[in-house]
Prior knowledge:
It is a single chain. The protein has helices at about 5-35, 40-65. It is mainly alpha-helical. Helix 1 (about 5-35) packs antiparallel against helix 2 (about 40-65). The chain starts with a helix and ends with a helix. The model has no long low-confidence stretch (mean pLDDT about 95).
Amino acid sequence: xxxxxxxxxxxxxTLLLTIVVAFDFVNAASGVLRDIVPPVTVLRSLIYLFASVxxxxxxxxxxxxxxx
Length: 68
């Protein structure tokens, strides 16, 4: 397996994880609006979403750098 293939596989994995975390953030935000969950849950979900998007962007840039 080449480094380019590994970078693409990592990008796909983190992209799927980012989608799941985004749905969790939307679920937490709607739960706060309905007074079901505490507002701290949205902050936690937002931090997870930011971290997940950051890693996804990193792997995107890294995989584009490997194609040269």
